[in-house]
Amino acid sequence: MSQSDLDKSIEIINKTEELADKILVNKHELTGMDKRRQETREALRLIENSEEKKVWITIGSMLVKMPLKKAVELLKKDQQQIEQQINMIYSDQKVLVNKHRDLEFKSPFSGTHLKPLDKKEFDALKTNLPML
Question: What is the pTM of this model?
Answer without folding.
Answer: 0.72
